């Protein structure tokens, strides 16, 4: 059996290396997606802004100090490009910045009387990112109020998913890594299987005096090499763009990553066997992976919109879909945090899903081996 | 794991005289919302060792389904298939160790060269012994040694078919299924394939040849089974099949299709009269009858004047005549 597996692996690797299109689809696409997404995430962390400071005094000093010191796990909240009112107005007018905070002339007097008011001007399309500006400014005003009257402060009690706050860049980086593993495993397995029908070579494989085991294991072995390449490329990209800490991808992250690989490969095998054409396998795998990424890899984003209806149902479903737990476990292991609570159940679910998908693939494989009228 | 059974062990394995046997085999498909489709209907035949047995039939007659039955890709709805004494759909692996298939499609990897294709095949099929030497041998057999390092995608159709034959032979099978082996192949490659197949059969290999090329069947087959709409319509050697139809034919070429049509109508009382455009073929019970018909034509008794006959010839029935007689002239889908 190992001889047959070796033969299949060697054949598929040689064919892959001789097919540049295949390399682009399977390896470069996830790298490009990760690159683009990681750049967008960076743009949303430290926001460049201009301040037109028309008031001088204790309160406006305090406002500026809070604004300068605001930060999260990902770094500073603001990059203040100028405080000069004329320069700020000019930059905003010229489109050099998308936001302008104006501290009006009477701000310090008004604040002393308990009515602090600042003006925020935005190139706004009411998107989440620009709304975030508003929230950040409100946060400064609230901080000022807390400083003057601590008893009036809102006490926020968070129920964190992880016992320690996590950098959004790392959170997103792991989501993108999950995307890459699933996509590469799915597309590569799907294509490797579908290609046997597309090249009309499936009959030669099927008529070998063997079971399907070498075929499945061989295809998965080739996929694992290709997925490893894709993952390494994406991890390198994330290290460059998001400062993703590759050294933290220790043994604790390997098992969940392996589980994601098996899941993706099993889904890809089912797609390949069911469709038997690589053309539909690629977009379908991309859509399926994006769905997984949005539901399970970027769950925090979805949570913000899950106010009822289908979105809430989708969000709730991620609790039971083991891909989310596996992705979170990679995050937890990277931060040195304990196992995520849902992991044991998710591991069982994951194993069951992989078994069901592989069984379905083999069933499909058997039921489609008739080759009536040629192939 | 061995892939080649020597003749002695094969006899032990089968205990049968025939290598391949089909006994009243039927295959029916149930298609949703449609009538049941019968692909193979009560088909029976047997192929002994060293025989080239030809399945001759029009498109969609059930030839490929029959091959799929023999190699275990399909289970018969009724009847029994036995290959080396085993039921292929139950003992697929055992059967496939001694049986090779040259499928209708070339089934080769275009981006690999001939040698790589064969090495993969040999390793995947578990060919024992010095595989590289055996690859060299089969490449030589199909005359592709010179092009062994070229990618198969650059090969002509004929070269690809020869390589497919080489691949089938690599496992040293006891029986070989050839599904349209010379489809789209040039004359030289066709002849090369025929020569190899005949040598293999002479060496004791049983060959099932599925084709709709008359010349191929006439040249190669020891026995021919004409199959139509899934059912056997005639079986025998070429001579036996010819004997089943009117062996002697008078072929008359008239000046126009209208004249030919009138002549065909006027001759309808004769034994067997067919027309193709302006050519009318009359089946004869013997050569004296040819003279009678020609005399009648000379006298203008068959709806045409002698000057309207452009030419005539007497010829023996060939396999195509036999085939058309049994399967008719209507087009198939």
UniProtKB/TrEMBL annotation, chain A:
Keywords: Cell membrane, Membrane, Transmembrane, Transmembrane helix. The chain crosses the membrane at residues 21-40, 171-194, 215-242, 254-274, 281-302, 346-365. It is a multi-pass membrane protein. InterPro entries: ABC-2_transporter_component (IPR051449), ABC2_TM (IPR013525). Its main location: membrane. It is found in: Cell membrane. GO terms for cellular component: plasma membrane. The keyword Membrane applies. GO terms for molecular function: ABC-type transporter activity. Residues 21-359 form the ABC-2 type transporter transmembrane domain. This is ABC transporter permease.
């Amino acid at each position: 059996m190992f001889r047959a597996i070796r033969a299949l692996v060697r054949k598929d690797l040689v064919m892959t290396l001789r097919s540049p299109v295949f390399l682009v689809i399977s390896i470069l696409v996830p790298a490009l997606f990760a690159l683009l997404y990681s750049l967008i995430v960076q743009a949303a962390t430290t926001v460049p802004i201009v301040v037109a400071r028309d008031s001088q005094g204790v309160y406006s000093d305090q406002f500026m100090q809070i604004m300068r010191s605001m930060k999260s796990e990902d770094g500073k909240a603001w990059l203040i490009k100028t405080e000069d009112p004329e320069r700020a107005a000019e930059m905003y007018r010229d489109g050099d910045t998308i936001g302008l905070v104006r501290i009006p002339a009477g701000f310090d007097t008004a604040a002393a009387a308990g009515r602090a008011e600042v003006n925020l001007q935005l190139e706004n399309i009411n998107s989440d990112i620009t709304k975030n500006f508003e929230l950040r400014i409100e946060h400064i005003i609230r901080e000022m109020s807390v400083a003057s009257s601590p008893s009036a402060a809102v006490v926020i009690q968070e129920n964190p998913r992880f016992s320690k706050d996590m950098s959004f860049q790392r959170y997103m980086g792991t989501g993108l890594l999950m995307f890459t593993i699933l996509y590469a495993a799915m597309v590569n397995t799907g294509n490797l299987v579908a290609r046997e029908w597309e090249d009309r070579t499936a009959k030669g494989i099927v008529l070998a005096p063997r079971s399907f085991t070498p075929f499945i294991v061989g295809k998965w072995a080739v996929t694992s090499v290709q997925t490893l390449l894709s993952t390494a490329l994406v991890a390198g990209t994330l290290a460059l763009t998001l400062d993703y800490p590759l050294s933290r991808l220790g043994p604790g992250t390997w098992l969940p990553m392996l589980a994601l690989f098996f899941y993706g490969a099993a889904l890809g095998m089912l797609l390949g066997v069911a469709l038997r054409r690589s053309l539909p396998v690629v977009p379908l795998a991309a859509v399926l992976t994006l769905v997984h990424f949005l539901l399970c890899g970027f769950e925090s984003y979805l949570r913000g919109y899950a106010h009822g209806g289908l979105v809430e149902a989708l969000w709730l479903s991620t609790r039971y879909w083991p891909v989310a737990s596996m992705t979170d476990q990679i995050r937890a292991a990277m931060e040195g945090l304990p196992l995520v609570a849902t992991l044991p159940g998710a591991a069982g679910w994951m194993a069951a899903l992989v078994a069901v998908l592989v069984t379905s693939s083999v069933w499909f494989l058997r039921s489609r081996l008739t080759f009536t009228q040629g192939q | 794991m061995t892939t080649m059974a020597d003749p002695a062990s094969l006899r032990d394995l089968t205990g049968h005289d025939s290598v391949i046997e089909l006994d009243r085999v039927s295959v029916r498909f149930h298609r949703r919302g449609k009538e049941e489709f019968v692909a193979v209907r009560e088909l029976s035949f047997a192929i002994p060792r060293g025989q080239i047995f030809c399945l001759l039939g029009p498109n969609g007659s059930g030839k490929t389904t029959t091959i799929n039955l023999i190699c275990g890709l399909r289970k018969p709805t009724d009847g029994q298939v036995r290959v080396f004494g085993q039921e292929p759909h139950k003992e697929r692996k055992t059967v496939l160790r001694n049986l090779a298939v040259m499928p209708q499609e070339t089934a080769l990897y275009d981006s690999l060269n001939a040698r790589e294709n064969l090495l993969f095949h040999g390793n995947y099929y578990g060919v024992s012994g010095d595989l590289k030497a055996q690859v060299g041998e089969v490449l030589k057999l199909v005359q592709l040694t010179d092009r062994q390092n070229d990618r198969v995608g650059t090969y002509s159709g004929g070269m690809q078919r020869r390589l497919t034959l080489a691949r089938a032979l690599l496992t040293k099978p006891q029986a070989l299924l050839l599904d349209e082996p010379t489809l789209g192949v040039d004359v030289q490659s066709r002849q090369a394939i025929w020569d190899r197949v005949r040598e293999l059969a002479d060496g004791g290999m049983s060959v099932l040849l599925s084709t709709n090329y008359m010349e191929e069947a006439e040249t190669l087959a020891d026995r021919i089974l004409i199959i139509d709409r899934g059912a056997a319509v005639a079986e025998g050697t070429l001579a036996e099949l010819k004997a089943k139809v009117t062996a002697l034919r008078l072929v008359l070429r008239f000046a126009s299709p209208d004249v030919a049509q009138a002549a065909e109508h006027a001759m309808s009382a004769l034994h067997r009269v067919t027309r193709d455009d302006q050519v009318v073929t009359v089946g004869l019970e013997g050569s004296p009858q040819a003279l009678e018909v020609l005399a009648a034509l000379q006298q203008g008794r068959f709806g045409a004047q002698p000057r309207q006959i452009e030419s005539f010839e007497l010829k023996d029935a060939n396999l195509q005549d036999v085939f058309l007689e049994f399967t008719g002239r209507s087009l198939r889908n």
